[in-house]
Amino acid sequence: MQITSPQFKENARIALTDVGLQKALGNVKTGFPQKRANAVARLPEFDQLRDQGRDLKNHIIANLDIYLEEFEANVIKNGGHVHWCRTSEDARQTILKICQDKGAKTVTKGKSMVTEEINLNEHLEANGITPIETDLGEYILQLRGEHPSHIIAPAIHLNLEDVSETFHAHHNKPKSMDPAVLMQEAREELRARFVAADVGITGANFLVAETGSSIIVTNEGNGDLTQTLPKTHIVVTSIEKVVPTLEDMTLFLRLLARSATGQEFTVYNTLSTGPKRPEDQDGPEDYHVVLVDNGRSDMVGGELQDMLRCIRCAACMNHCPVYGAIGGHSYGWVYPGPMGSVLTPQMIGIEKAALLPNASTFCGKCESVCPVHIPLPKLMRHWRKNEFERHLTPKAARWGIKTWAFFAKRPSLYRLLSQTSNRMLRLLGGKKGRIHKLPMVSGWTDHRDMPVPSSKTFMQQWNEKQKAGH
């Protein structure tokens, strides 16, 4: 996947003028947030579950090595294999070797953002193996040559017209605008692929240490077919997905469905525990788990450790005003929205992703809806600080911050400047109290009026209230 995060501003400008995208994004603003709110309202103990989820995740991260080793031991006990991969290249080569050893020509895939992260599809295709996405959204995007714009609804940036055109171009069938007809087309196309696949690759929402199981949650059932029909099942996931017990897993499943899609529970919740046993009616002959680090272990014990609590529900981006305006592709890599603004600099470098943590109003909505209380604004501030300390911020911004700091360190001068600026801005605003043009802030006044400030500064109002006993 090509990284375009350095062009974030240009990406955003294009997105804001894309009529089709803006129409599609309207569904994000009105759909997911309301469904989540309704689901939460039906569960009085939801906030208590969030606290439990945060505390359990913190415990897991503090003991990550212990639980991962327990998970590995149980996978091996069940007849499976575990592969530890520090980098994306390690993971790609490991998966490729498994496929080549099995003589695989085609591979079906259940939705996995980690396989997007490591550019798996491109690597398999370059080595003569055809990957077939089976999640409906991912399948549509594969036909279009696009990547996901959302971590749980990958094709949310498309409208019905786009899907109809795409299927008509690739399925050699009459064009239809009926969602049921389009769904049936996808089923017919994918059914033969499921049966013919040599290897099935899925992600994992969680890994259970006590049983050596992986679980994938879907609303389509494609994950089940991907991991039971082929002779080889490969789970590709990241190290922080491990949980101690099956009971712990159910806690996160209750949080995940409500936070992601507003459901009480996801339709399909499928556990895989090793290869097929003699008494099993179906299942793979070989079971492999590829554990991807890719910089995550470096986050343990550091300022970004809280990000490892993420359960990939997408609630942060569903409620983010910036994501809602520009969509996921503008962020220029695998993970969009607030969570991507924290993860992307860690994984591809702040040099390439410095614009992302700055693309936030810091309204705090992302933190308020996070099912495991990740302080996303705080983590984005960490990257802003890192960017400034490494002199990556534009000179104009650095000059502005230094100028502000000079006055902020001198309270008397700061108050004088504030009072003087207030008077000048009020004069410019005239009787209407609106400023239409203002030097040095044309980025604001070129597109909207600027209201004049109050006649009194914040400190003046504060002192008055203090004296009045408020």
UniProtKB/TrEMBL annotation:
This is Iron-sulfur cluster-binding protein. GO terms for molecular function: 4 iron, 4 sulfur cluster binding; metal ion binding. Residues 301-331 form the 4Fe-4S ferredoxin-type domain. The keyword 4Fe-4S applies. One of its GO terms (biological process) is lactate metabolic process. InterPro entries: 4Fe4S_Fe-S-bd (IPR017896), 4Fe4S_Fe_S_CS (IPR017900), FTHF_cligase-like_sf (IPR024185), Helical_ferredxn (IPR009051), LUD_dom (IPR003741), LutB/LldF (IPR004452), LutB_C (IPR024569), NagB/RpiA_transferase-like (IPR037171). The keyword Aminoacyl-tRNA synthetase does not apply. It holds the Pfam family Fer4_8. Keywords: 4Fe-4S, Electron transport, Iron, Iron-sulfur, Metal-binding, Repeat, Transport. It comes from Nitrincola tibetensis. The lineage of its organism: Bacteria, Pseudomonadati, Pseudomonadota, Gammaproteobacteria, Oceanospirillales.
